[in-house]
Amino acid sequence: RDGDVVVMTGKYEDRVRALVKLNSFVDSYLFVGRMVDPVVLSQLETTKKAGNAYTLLAAKNSSLMVTITLIFIVVAVMFLLAATWFGIILARQLVTPIGSMITAADRVRAGDLTARVEGGDQIEEFDYLAKSFNRMTSQLEEQRAELINANRQLDQRRRFTEAVLAGVTSGVIGIDERNIITLANASSSDLFGVAQEKLTGQDVGEVVPDIVPLLEQARTRGSKIIQGEVAMLSRDMSRRTLLVRIAMDRIGEEVKGAVLTFDDITELQAAQRNSAWADVARRIAHEIKNPLTPIQLSAERLKRKYMKEIESDPATFAECTDTIIRHVGDIGRMVSEFSNFARMPEPVLKEENLPLHVRQTLVLQKEAHPGIDFEITDMCGDLNVMCDAQQIRQALTNLIVNSTDSIQDSGTASGKLHVLITMDKADGHVVICVSDNGPGLPKGHDPSRLTDPYVTHKVRGTGLGLAIVKALLN
Predict the structure, then answer these.
(1) Per the domain annotation, does 217 fall within a domain?
(2) What's 251's domain CATH number?
(3) Which of 320, 341, 362 is the last residue of a domain?
(4) Which GO terms describe its molecular function (predicted)?
(5) 74 backbone dihedrals φ, ψ, rounded to 5°
(6) Which of residues 287, 322, 341 is at a domain's end?
């Protein structure tokens, strides 16, 4: 090629020759030769080889960089894979016990307290955590078993208490420290005329106002049980007397609540009063009845024997003797009422025509009270019932006399008395109703005391008529 120099060596390494083409001349070359040191030639050859090697290396530089880069990438990927594998192993050692604990915790949350976490982990902290978790679940399982057992016992006691309270005839109420009713049995509901569910949550002072002073007394006293009597109005507005026992629930000096028992002793008190009055009536009848007949006979004899001999004032003499005889008769009737009340005969039951006896009794009273319009309504016709006819007539007579006296005491111009006889077909009971147009009961009168002995609002009443009627019916 033009411009290139070709260096040639000969057989002997002490001479160097060079050949170069001359561009200015056609087919002309310049050949030059010179003697040189063989060392120089050797160095020149070495330099030439180094240059060739460098040229070759420069030519392969890009492929070498790619190779080195690939080797670096492979090594980096290997290190990354090794780190990832090591991380996975380490994460597995961390996640596995945590996952087991999460699974066990979910089972515990679902209510399975038998869940346990396996221990023996190489990580000491996880092993300690697993043991602590297992101890916790074991304690929870034991406590739940104890709670279930305690709840079962409480439920059994509750059912037993409810069964006992349901069979108790006394009213039982439980209250808290604020006097709010927390428990009420069926008898208390019947006693106060309020449904059980409505009683719960009410203040006991609103249900029985008169019990508040007794409750305050029970709180201040040191005794655990206190007893007293309170009065209340029933649904029919009759006055009832309740025997109340209060058992305080105390923890130390603090009152946590109380249990109140109520017994309706109205009938018991009435029976005690009747018994006492019957004894009094028996004694009075015995003491008064003996001299009555001699007094009446003496007065009648005085009138017959000495009436003709009295010349100064025979009218006064006759009036005095008649007064004695009349009042002795009144006292005799009163003594008879005392005797009837004190010693009620046993009924003799026979089949009787009830409407017939009612009409006969009414006829006798019509004759005795001509100024009163008597009326009877018989809804049963000829009706035979098992009864004591004499006692039925006595009870009916007392009712009618009570009505006629009320009409006469009130000064009613046209008295009316109506007797209604009906029969309840549902239970077969016969009802005899006596009504009048008198003034009725005075305001403020307690209906529950209406049949008590010696309770009367009539001018000439003894208070035994309705008491005898009640005794006969009982």
Answers:
(1) yes
(2) 3.30.450.20
(3) 341
(4) ATP binding; phosphorelay sensor kinase activity
(5) -60, -45
(6) 341
State which amino acid sits at residue 298.
Answer: S
Structural tokens at position 204: 């006991």
Number of domains composing the chain = 4
Q: Is residue 96 part of a domain?
A: no
Q: Are residues 177 and 256 in the same domain?
A: yes
Which regions in the chain score pLDDT beneath 70?
1-14, 16, 36, 41, 119-122, 222-223, 235-237, 274, 277-290, 330, 333-345, 410-415, 417, 419-427, 442-465
Taking the model in full, what pTM does it have?
Answer: 0.46
Using CB atoms within 10 A of its CB, is residue 396 exposed (0-12), middle (13-18) or buried (19+)? buried
Q: Return the structure tokens found at 96.
A: 């596995």
Shared domain check, 370 and 287: no
Tens of pLDDT, residue by residue over 202-218, are 888 888 888 888 888 88
